[in-house]
Specification:
The protein is of the alpha/beta class. The chain contains four helices and four strands. It has a four-stranded parallel beta sheet with strand order 2-1-3-4, sandwiched between helices. Helix 1 packs parallel to helix 4. The longest helix has 19 residues. It is globular, with a radius of gyration of 12 Å.
């Protein structure tokens, strides 16, 4: 399953990657707003937003792309590894319920 993680702390980048890869997911982590962010999001299976550590513009862009491409969005105010794990559980449950895979 492919995931785009938006927000979080720069120092946690490798931990976020590790948590996702242990669960068999490929992940792109954006803790800072890259150029043409709407284009680099792509078409993941889900978007995870850490709302406390991200700009409003980045949230707006991610949510707009998610609506346009019908991608589920999962939000957490906390940007901890435990929060990511909880959101991945929600994402996996949603994907299984909606698509049966």
């Amino acid at each position: 399953m492919s995931i785009v993680l938006v927000g979080g702390h720069d120092r946690m980048h490798s931990e976020y990657m590790g948590i996702c890869s242990k669960r068999g997911h490929s992940v792109k982590v954006y803790t800072q707003m890259p150029t043409k962010f709407d284009k680099v999001i792509g078409s993941p299976d889900g978007i995870v937003l850490f709302t406390s550590t991200v700009s409003h513009k980045m949230i707006h862009t991610a949510v707009k792309e998610a609506k346009r491409k019908k991608i589920p969005v999962f939000r957490s105010h906390s940007s901890s590894g435990a929060s990511l794990d909880r959101l991945l559980n929600e994402l996996e449950d949603t994907i299984v319920q909606n698509y049966g895979t």
